[in-house]
Design a protein that fits this description.
Number of helices: 11
CATH topology: Metallo-beta-lactamase, Chain A
Order of helices and strands: HEHEEHHEHHEHHEEEEEHHEH
Helix content: 25-40%
Distance between the termini: 44 Å
Number of domains: 1
Mean pLDDT: 96
Number of strands: 11
């Protein structure tokens, strides 16, 4: 177990009632489906995934999600190419066919939303041959773009200012309705710029994508953070988000809470039809 400095407890005050109301502000038909694809994976001992874990290996998929509207799609994050994946260390699983699917979905999307600056979320745009075309329809916060320019997650992903200016730069307070039924939620902690996403479909199904607040559903269920020595988080902020997500898990049983890197959770979502396993292109 890591010897972490003691931090004062924080609170995370996202208001689900307010978020639900904001989801109805952007006019237009609500989305009809949510899809996901796994394009790579990292395998880590459980002791790094959750505080107090053991040596059991955990396969952590790298995923991208797609929101399907009647008249088009929105991509949540952009995945990353093989070279970027291997810059973290060679030999871990990577699916070229799955990333080809991500690239086609990025190309056909009406909009791409980046949740934070980490390589597995932005690499698919930054390294793309058609970067200029993709950047013009990619929404990123001012915080994300600043980090991509000044503190890139991988050195080769550093954005020159002239390229950063091609993105749609967004600044907002706590919540932002980015598309019909879809709300961005500021959630710094895992990274200074991280956002969660709320989504409501036409049929009433609701989702809360926690992005990387947790690496595994167990982080939320047990309100225990990550314990990987290479991860530099605001631990108190992340724990506050985990407590909030844990309350939602208890009080909002119909709300589908998603976790970017939990393969077993994604399998369950696919099995019950909450998430489709192939991107629409």
């Amino acid at each position: 177990m890591l010897d972490r400095p003691v931090q004062a407890e924080q609170s995370f005050e996202a208001d689900l009632t307010a978020i639900r109301a904001i989801a109805g502000l952007v006019p237009g038909p609500l989305p009809i489906a949510l899809n996901a694809v796994r394009f790579a994976a990292s395998i880590r001992p459980r002791k790094f995934v959750i505080e107090g874990g053991d040596e059991t290996p955990v396969t952590m998929p790298r995923t991208a999600y797609q929101v399907v509207y009647p008249d088009g799609t929105v991509m949540i994050d952009a995945g990353m190419d093989r070279a970027t994946h291997e810059s973290f260390g060679a030999g871990e699983p990577y699916d070229d066919d799955a990333f080809a699917q991500v690239k086609r979905a990025l190309g056909s999307a009406r909009m791409i939303v980046l949740t934070h600056y980490h390589a597995d979320h932005v690499g698919g745009v930054v390294t793309a041959d058609d970067f200029g075309t993709l950047a013009k329809k990619t929404v990123a916060t001012a915080e994300t773009l600043s980090l991509m320019m000044n503190q890139p997650h991988r050195p080769h992903l550093k954005l020159p200012e002239r390229r950063a200016e091609q993105f749609i730069c967004l600044s907002y307070g706590r919540y932002y309705p980015v598309a019909p039924g879809m709300v961005l939620i500021k959630a710094p902690g895992h990274s200074p710029d991280m956002q969660m996403i709320y989504l409501r479909l036409q049929d009433g199904r609701e989702y809360l994508h926690s992005i990387d607040a947790a690496w595994n559903e167990a982080n939320i269920r047990h309100v225990k953070g990550k314990a990987a020595p290479w991860v530099k988080e605001d631990v108190a902020a992340v724990l506050a988000q985990l407590r909030w997500l844990n309350r939602l898990m208890t009080e909002e049983s119909a709300l589908h809470i998603l976790v970017t890197h939990d393969g077993e959770l994604l399998d369950r979502m696919i099995e019950k039809g909450a998430v489709g396993q192939k991107l629409k292109v």
